[in-house]
Design goal:
There is one protein chain. With 310 residues, the protein is of the alpha+beta class. 15% of the residues lie in helices and 34% in strands. It has 2 domains: 12-168, Probable tRNA modification gtpase trme, domain 1 (Gyrase A, domain 2), CATH 3.30.1360.120; 188-300, Elongation Factor Tu (Ef-tu), domain 3, CATH 2.40.30.160.
Length: 310
């Protein structure tokens, strides 16, 4: 059973206290990250941003980022705070003699989320394509994928800078918009739970299949080219709050879960929306949270098309 998810008017500005910033700076910063992330960092210019993942050797995602350049040799990676320290430690292990310095720059920047009319009020008139970047004074404004039909953007400015103008918005609404975008960022509860395709990263520009090697690249490429994608991310709705990392079950198997909750947030119209990564073979079956007899989980349409080939 599926439901429809119609646009819900949301507008405002909220501080993104759940996110932090890793900074890579140095003449070999681009080269270093090119060998670590699923994204083609070399091709990234100053007017763009990208979704990217950092995987282990088995292709399982340990972190995901919004990546953009502040200059030719300074790159910022915005990620969940609960995995930042461990991610920085793992990335730093690979630096060796590369001319790049990796650091936790969360205290050096302030992050805000802008939604709806607040995006246009800050960026000016004219449609801005998702995953482009513009500078507003000393701030970087990254246009993200829309959520619930509303434009969304990430504001990153040096600490102490004026906050972006706009009505205050509850952080819970930002989390809901993020869920509605269909893009789940890696947090501690889903650390190493998925290869990128299990969260549809290849369908939303989070994986480059034309760049060189990175940790887990062989597994990620094999999953794509050999047509063995058995799990996908779906939008879903429940009347009971799901928790990140919670197991999902289907009616035909009471013992083995068919997937996991990757992200969840309250729907302002009632109930809760989530991104769940489940086996494609059971996507049409009755689904439930936690156990077969648990709260019903009803699928919603994704806001984007899935990429079948590359």
């Amino acid at each position: 059973m599926t439901l429809s998810n119609s646009a819900f008017p949301v507008s405002g500005v909220t501080e993104l206290t759940h996110l932090g910033v890793i900074r890579a700076i140095g003449e070999e910063a681009v080269k270093f990250l090119q060998g670590q992330l699923t994204q083609d960092v070399v091709a990234l210019d100053l007017s763009q941003a990208r979704l990217a993942a950092f995987c282990n050797a088995k292709g399982r995602m340990q972190a995901s980022f919004v990546v953009f350049k502040r200059s030719a040799d300074e790159i910022l990676l915005v990620c969940s705070r609960d995995i930042l320290a461990a991610t920085l430690k793992r990335l730093s292990m690979f630096v060796l003699r590369a001319k790049v310095k990796m650091s936790d720059a969360s205290a050096d920047f302030q992050l805000y989320g802008l939604a709806g009319g607040a995006v246009e009020a800050t960026a000016g008139s004219g449609e801005q394509a998702p995953w482009t970047k513009t500078d507003v004074g000393v701030a970087s404004l990254v246009f993200l994928s829309p959520g619930a039909g509303q434009p969304c953007a990430l504001w990153c400015a040096p600490a102490g800078s004026p906050a972006p103008e706009g009505a205050a918005m509850d952080l819970a609404l930002w989390h809901w918009l993020a869920v509605q975008s269909g893009i789940a960022m890696i947090t501690q509860p889903i650390f190493e739970a998925f290869v990128p395709q299990m969260l549809n990263y290849e369908s939303v520009g989070g994986v480059s299949f034309k760049k060189g090697c990175y940790p887990g690249q062989e597994i990620v490429a094999r999953s794509q080219y050999r047509g063995i994608l058995k799990r996908r991310a779906y939008l879903a709705h429940s009347e009971v709050a799901p928790s990140m990392g919670q197991e999902v079950f289907h009616a035909k198997d009471a013992l083995q879960p068919c997937g996991l909750v990757a992200a969840a947030a309250p729907n302002p119209s009632g109930g809760f929306d989530a991104i769940v990564s489940i086996q494609t073979a059971v996507a049409a079956d009755p689904l439930a949270l936690g156990q077969v007899a648990g709260p019903a989980l009803l699928l919603l349409p994704l806001p984007y098309s899935l990429l079948e080939t590359v």
